[in-house]
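If your schedule permits, I should be very grateful for your opinion on a structural question. I have a record of one protein: its chain in single-letter code and its fold written as discrete structure tokens. Kindly check, if you would, that the fold set down in the tokens agrees with what the sequence suggests. I remain grateful for any guidance, and I place the record below:

***
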Amino acid sequence: MTPELIVLANTVHTLDERPSGSGPVEAVAVNGGVITAVGSRQDAQTWQGDGTQVVDFGAASLTPGLVDCHIHPVFGLDLTVGCDLSGAECLDEVRSLLAREAAAAGSANDDGWLRAWGLNPNAFGSVPLHRAVIDEISPDRPALIRLFDGHSALANTKALEIAGIRGPREFDQTAEVVCGEDGRPTGMLLEAAAMELVQKHIPQESFENRKSRLGELLRDFARSGLTGGHVMDHSDETSALLHALEADGDLPLRLRTAPWCMPGTTEDDWAALARSVGSGGRRWAIEAIKLFVDGTIDNGTAWLYEPDLYGESTAPFWPRPEEYAAAVHYFASRGIPTATHAIGDAGVEHVLNAFSTLPPAAKAARAHTVHRIEHIETVPDELVEGFKKAGVVASMQPTHCTHYSRADHSDNWSTRLGRERADQAWRCRDLREAGITLGIGSDWPIAPYEPLPILADAQLRRRAGHPEQEPIAPGQALTALQALEGYTSHAAKAAGLWDVSGSITVGKRADFTIFELDPLTASPDTLAAGTVLGTVVDGQVQFMLDRLR
């Protein structure tokens, strides 16, 4: 059959684990969105027909399409409104940026609130995170500042008054309205239920605006080199937005979404979630269920064996953790994949134990079902070894390490944990050497989504482009191949899709990313500053640099 598309590049990294044939791979033929042939440039001349589109990327490198294993594009629309504080390194910079945002009241995006996002608690130094800091800048205008971890926010006094928050609250999940010794709220809101007390009072953005922002974001994802993403949330609005975007044309990348199963839900709720799995559109579908067993180390809501420096991070997100185990057993027994947020050592152990004790029905279904743990920020040796016994795969974000912690342990995350636990940080290499599948992603908007710097940071264990920084636990650095696998072959395995994607193999999906530099031979710092020349999804060119057209 004459191919519809032939893609040429001097270097093709197939990531196919089967023995390769003789000769270089420089050409890939595609028909109906599926790879139909792999071979040399000379081979490609014999494939080509009258109607074949040939795209020659010259000296570039072609790989299977990059897939971010953990992103929040729709949820991120709410988390990225207002002033971006992610680059603020001290409190004076935070104040300056907020003051500038407050002075812009009346702009086209103004909703009556002062809003900002990406705040790193390290910027506050020894100053407590307290509403007084925002009150100085915005005493009369309500303000809500999202912290970088996505699990906490700081509200000013006016916002608390509007929400009717005057003291502590009780929740079905481990969430908290933080109060001082006087019983008055400090403004810190920990976890989703507490933040929603304020969030629900902020005027809603129009559907059309959100659709436009989401469409542009997905195009930016494609321009960065992504051909797919594992979306770790889903709502009715997600479905509506994605359907609306697909009514205008194909999405520029594939999306695999996962609605949340939260504490306080019942088996009837789980059944409704189970029924939603498989629904979707042309390039997106609900394919898993997302759960949480803890929060974050930075705000004291992780689940650790021992308390952190401030006596925090000792409680599970599910107040009755046995109900979490019941929930994952319910989904596993029905062949439904799950992804569980587990950051602290006790949280990770609880998830591993839950999957090590699956009932017979779940064990029978798991041969075709992938269950995974997200984040895994600090674990001892025995838990690394426990992944294989539990049959669970790992999904991690290298830039959580390189952006928010420091080798000298002076950052908030490391200070809370202490040196011993901080030295067990983000054990990517140990998990790979234990034979565990390791998907890699960004957790956008918690960290930037661009994959090239993430590939670099995974190898460097410091921020790409900053050679002056000391690597953080350099023994956990991935090789260039392992990092690329995290976005390709291991990303496919982490989604249970290795039979249809993740390598350049005849019969698999025709999803490709084209690099200006070779991701396996370029130095990591150079790669991070390099260029993505194009992407192909479903056999269609989604993005190509203008100079190549």
